[in-house]
Amino acid sequence: MSKSDISKTLESQLRSEGVDLEKMYVFLENLNSGKYDGLAGIIPETVPSMPNPSIVDRRGISSWKMPLDDAISCFASLGISIDPKKEGFVECGYVTFGERALEKIGILLYPKTAYGVLNGGSASSYADVKKNTALDPELFDHFRSIFDSLAKECSGKPKGITPAFINGDGSTGWSFLFLKLRMLLEHKKRYRDLTGHLPEFILPSFQMTSVLTDSDIANAFKAYVSDPSLLEISQELGCTAIEMFTETQTLMAAITHSSTGSPRRIFDKAWGKNDTGIAMPGGHGQNFEVLAPIYRKLLEKGVRFAWLGNIDNMGYTVDPVSLAIFALSGKDAAFEESWRTPMDVKGGILVCDSSGKFTC
Fold first, then answer.
1. For residues 98 and 63, is the Cβ–Cβ distance under 8 A?
2. What is the tens place of the pLDDT at every residue in 269-309?
3. 18-57 exposure pattern, b = at least 16 Cβ within 10 A, e = fewer
4. Is the overall model pTM greater than 0.85, yes or no?
5. Parallel, antiparallel, or unpaired: how do β-strands 205-210 and 305-310 relate?
6. Cβ atoms of 253 and 277 closer than 8 Å
């Protein structure tokens, strides 16, 4: 499908709503040529049993055991200037690192680590009465006045700059984004306290915004950069209060359903109106394409590890122990999962197929 295949009216509408039509044409060409055919997922059979050799349970005290020779080689390749024999317990050619040692190793890896957030979502669901009532109607009614006041601060705003918590007096606390920025400064301080110095480039942060949220987030940064709660730490450390690389995700356009046959096209009859399309987010999977320039830049600067998670995930923070275990494992990627409860209605659960392969 090309530019000549859609009306000027539809083109104008979609572009005005943030759709990158050139990307859409490439996507549709790949789709219609069969590039995505045969990409079968796994068939879930069960949830992983615990303990599992591929799962590290971080709810308690962690340890990591590996061949001593591998540890020595790993420390050297990562530039960790401490002796693994002195940091761990050595026995029969293996070394076991306890929680304190892993924490130290992880902190020493901060100059090679970046922290990224997916910051393109809107907070519309936070202020949605129907969704919030569904959990417990009576409970919702009891807190309705608080909800209404918070909803005003969330409606129409990006998730990242809405309040992440409520203070004891009922006032709103810092935003999700502000908490992440403060957290990163605290971890930079941990490195300084451990080593006695702070590199110029350490724990840089990066984000994927969207064309719908980027402007508001940029304005928030202008206010945050002079906030005393960030400045008090950054000035003590002698570093900038905010170090953030940003790339912006454009929107996609809804396409015709497979039931209408091939070739698939941009959907142009939204709400029964001719030449009317639907602009929609492309999803977090696009981060590999959107953030590619940042990933390459970080790699050039010596970064070897990168976290990536949702801005409004309160549990998504830098954890030096997990970082150390990941680095020592030699794995290409790791995923942080949480134990699910009946109230966790969003997101997925970890499952595996008959061969033990995992997916979410």
1. yes
2. 999 999 999 999 888 889 999 999 999 999 999 999 999 99
3. bbbbebbbebbeebeeeeeeeeeeeeeeeeeeeeeeeebe
4. yes
5. unpaired
6. yes
